[in-house]
Amino acid sequence: MAMNASDGAAHGILASGVEVTFPEGSVLELRTGARPADAHQVATGTLLVAIAAPADPWGAPASRKVSKNGTWSDDGVDAGDIGWARLKQAGDAGTLNTTDERCDFTVTAVGGGGDIEVDNVNVAVDQPVTVTDLFIGA
Predict the structure, then answer these.
(1) How far apart are CA 138 and CA 134, in angstroms?
(2) Which of 69, 84, 103, 116 could form a disulfide with 59 if both were Cys (CB 3.0 to 4.6 A apart)?
């Protein structure tokens, strides 16, 4: 049986859980290729951009989701097309396991409807890439 939560409960869980799980300094990796079958797996593809979550990285919950807050941006470390992203804690070594706290997302350009939208999915080395939309929902 599936849980049924009120908006208030969902917002409370999101507000406290997301802030604790992915605080300032957590890392959003933008990578090439297809995302793994689940977030327990080792990351696939080439790392194109690694963005550290800024201070106060999350806004207030609304409509059963928490959206990014502040500027999430960094420069490309390799060249290629972004295929997916992983949000992880700074200390996550990226090994195959079920205990590290991670979320994997689809990524598209602005207006493309991905879980995360960025200003440009075709990355060059040293090119700035900015996340324009990112949210975690319940």
Answers:
(1) 14
(2) 69
Going by their DSSP bridges, the two strands 102-109 and 116-118 should be labelled as parallel
Show the beta-strand stretches assigned E in 22-127: 27-31, 47-52, 65-67, 72-75, 80-81, 84-88, 102-109, 116-118, 122-123
The pair of three-digit structure tokens given for residue 20, joined into one six-digit string: 């604790």
Phi, psi of 103 (to 5 degrees): -135, 135
The band of 46, judged by pLDDT with boundaries at 50, 70 and 90, is very high
Averaged over 81-93, what is the pLDDT? 95
Q: Where are the domains of the chain?
A: 7-137
Alpha-carbon gap, residue 24 to 58, rounded angstroms = 9
Beta strands in the chain (DSSP E): 27-31, 47-52, 65-67, 72-75, 80-81, 84-88, 102-109, 116-118, 122-123, 128-137
